[in-house]
Amino acid sequence: MEGNTHSRDLLRKIKEITLWILDNLSQGRSPLIGIQRFRTYCTDLGSNCNCSSIKPNGHEILTFQKESHVYRIDVLLRVLLIVQQLLQENKHGSKRDIYYMHPSVFSDQSVVDRAINDICILLQCSRHNLNVVSVGNGLVMGWLRFFEGGRKFDCINSPNTAHTIPVLVEEVKDIVSVAQYILVVEKESVFQRLANDQFCSKNRCIVITGRGYPDVPTRRFLRLLVEQLCLPVYCLVDCDPYGFDILATYRFGSMQMAYDAKFLRVPQIQWLGAFPSDSDYYGLPKQCLLPLTTEDKRKTEAMLLRCYLHQEKPDWRLELELILQRGVKFEIEALSVHSLSFLSDVYIPSKIKEGTYICHI
Length: 361
Fold this sequence. Notes:
- The protein is α/β, with parallel strands linked by helices.
- It folds into two domains: 2-133, Arc Repressor Mutant, subunit A (Orthogonal Bundle), CATH 1.10.10.10; 139-354, Dna Topoisomerase Vi A Subunit, Chain: A, domain 2.
- Helices cover 44% and strands 16% of the residues.
- The protein has helices at residues 2-26, 67-89, 95-99, 103-106, 109-123, 188-196, 199-202, 216-229, 241-252, 261-264, 278-281, 294-303, 307-311, 314-326, 342-354, and strands spanning 32-36, 59-63, 93-94, 132-133, 139-142, 144-148, 151-154, 163-164, 172-177, 181-185, 205-209, 233-236, 270-273, 290-291, 328-329.
- The strands form five sheets. Strands 8-5-11-10-12-13 form a six-stranded mixed β-sheet, sandwiched between helices.
- α1 (2-26) packs antiparallel against α2 and α2 (67-89) packs across α5.
- Belongs to the TOP6A family.
């Protein structure tokens, strides 16, 4: 019933927006469509920014008087019509589905993605409220059981078996777990290494991977688990700028979906590794250390300017600075130089037991 009420509210807003645009055009006026802008960070370190909040950060005005805006408004209205249809028929569609409804007009998937974000801002809602879903990439295993849309996910009976993370996270119900913590790993290869080593059988935990940069369902599902189970959550990423950026996406949200960051970020997440100092502590040979590329250095320097690393995570910033100072990076899999199961048997358990991770604030 609540979902139907929300859909009716969105349909009312869509009708009001379209009628307002048509009314302006019929009277020879060019409507000004204001799109609020949000951000998850800034690089003005001397200012008292509010990037950690959900407050708007200025407006972008779309008008028919600018040729570049005409195409963008056209795309926005076409996507809005598709969203209206999805809501009216109570159906779900992916961003890719929407793209293929007008491929010659949309030209590129990113055009649709931007229109969907603009619509969310205009309607003041999240993407899933539009019945627009992502194609889920995330995987989960461990001591967990839940239902989604009437379907039972019973990971507990086989804790080392991978299950895809539900796309319709809002329909996840009756979550049960006897886990002691949640472990988020950057890559599928590390996830599979833990599965092969029977990691979840030996350690009462839940393991999640977004297979790189996490999609929306993975981030929403992780946040749901943390809120409902009240478990500590650790994140394991490569010791390089891209691994760090993935960690930051889980913790602070992405700039692309900054308007929805408060529903996607996981402030409780703790950085388990890999740290630059781990290469010395665990005796990684020089062959395992790769020099930072020019792009790696550029990305690292840019990330060091993010306000949240100065205001909220100075300890994370120090580790990122150390990556840049050393000029080398390494992958989590490099720990296999000691033994194939070193990551599962030694590295992760010892870090959690000894508390050698960077806590959330």
